[in-house]
Amino acid sequence: MKTLKHVEMEVIEAIIRKCDICYVGVVDGDLPYVLPMNFGYRDNTIYLHSAPVGRIIDILNKNNNICVTFSTDHELAYVSEEIACSYRMKSKSVIANGKVLFVEDMDEKRKCLNVLMEQYSDLKFEYRDPAVKNVKIWKVPIDQVSCKEFGAPHDKYRQDRALEELKKNNK
Length: 171
Ligand SMILES: Cc1cc2nc3c(=O)[nH]c(=O)nc-3n(C[C@H](O)[C@H](O)[C@H](O)COP(=O)(O)OP(=O)(O)OC[C@H]3O[C@@H](n4cnc5c(N)ncnc54)[C@H](O)[C@@H]3O)c2cc1C
Hints:
Layout: E1 2-5, H1 9-18, E2 22-28, E3 31-37, E4 40-42, E5 45-50, H2 55-62, E6 65-78, E7 87-99, E8 101-103, H3 106-118, H4 129-133, E9 136-152, H5 156-169
Antiparallel strand pairs: 1-9, 2-3, 2-6, 4-5, 5-9, 6-7, 7-9, 8-9
Helix pairs in contact: 1-5
The protein binds flavin-adenine dinucleotide (FAD).
Flavin-adenine dinucleotide binds at residues 21, 35-38, 49-51, 54-56.
């Protein structure tokens, strides 16, 4: 098994779409602060939503740089059950960096909420004004992204098939 680095956006997007949550890292002065959050993704942009107040909002108002990590397809694997260092967690992950832009326009907020909901449901939703006013919408155009697959098959044929499978799942 080996670690592959992926650069194709269709592979990266397929991994993001398979995740049900992401981990959002911010910088609180000298301290890192990482929160699990739900998300949406479209066109190289991550969408998040939160309460309008809280520690995370205070931090973002001072420093809007964030790092968002996605991880999926976790599968414990080992060469020998008795040998600890032969264990590994097969997985695929994406790390994205960007700056949070808060969306204030009501129509744009609704569009962002639709992107978020599309990650979790095929249904169409309507959002009432008070709910839209009370939610903080974060838009994060991705500035930098990296993607790794851990525990990929060594053999080139199986590796190509695994890549094809990922691309197919994204269609
Ligand atoms: C699977 C999952 C998905 C989530 N999705 C969303 C989402 O889409 N949007 C959203 O706004 N929130 C979501 N949450 C909650 C989110 O992780 C934060 O708790 C929330 O955003 C409030 O953050 P805050 O910094 O404003 O909290 P505050 O209430 O201001 O935090 C006060 C203190 O509570 C502690 N704290 C805060 N959050 C957590 C936590 N999750 N776990 C342990 N300690 C914590 C910290 O020590 C912090 O200093 C999700 C949580 C989980 C587990």
